[in-house]
Amino acid sequence: MSQQRRLGIVLGLNLSLIAALVIVGRAAHSVGVLAAAGDTAIDSVALVLGLTAVTVRDRSTHPRRSLAIPVVALINGGALLVVLALIVVEAVRRLRRR
Predict the structure, then answer these.
(1) Mind giving me the DSSP string for the chain?
(2) Cα-to-chain-centroid distance, residue 24
(3) Tens digit of pLDDT for each residue in 7-63?
(4) Quick one: which of 53, 58, 21 has its CA closest to 38?
(5) Alpha carbon separation from 4 to 19, 27, 50, 60, 76 (Å, rounded)
(6) Closest CA to 71 of 46, 90, 92
(7) Which pick of 5, 12, 25, 73 has the fewest CB atoms within 10 Å?
(8) What's the angle, vertex CA 57, arms to CA 78 and CA 49, rounded to 5?
């Protein structure tokens, strides 16, 4: 099984997990479960980026084609920081309501 195929399967599973976590998190009014959904969503974005990087790596003949993987890692790290900020903002908002 190719690396692209495996990434596609994992992406489908992650999207299903996100849907379930959002439904449960909203029903339970749980920031923790919604945070897990956000983290899984970022993982899915990373999978899409990784799938793109693998495709570029496999199809390109350019000598710098292997740079796609580190760029994907940097983008994923930045996205995780954005999710962290959103979680902190929501937690502070909920604490102020009490």
Answers:
(1) --HHHHHHHHHHHHHHHHHHHHHHHHHHT-HHHHHHHHHHHHHHHHHHHHHHHHHHHHH---TTGGGHHHHHHHHHHHHHHHHHHHHHHHHHHHHHH-
(2) 19
(3) 999 999 999 999 999 999 999 999 999 999 988 998 898 889 888 888 877 887 777
(4) 21
(5) 23, 35, 9, 15, 18
(6) 46
(7) 5
(8) 30
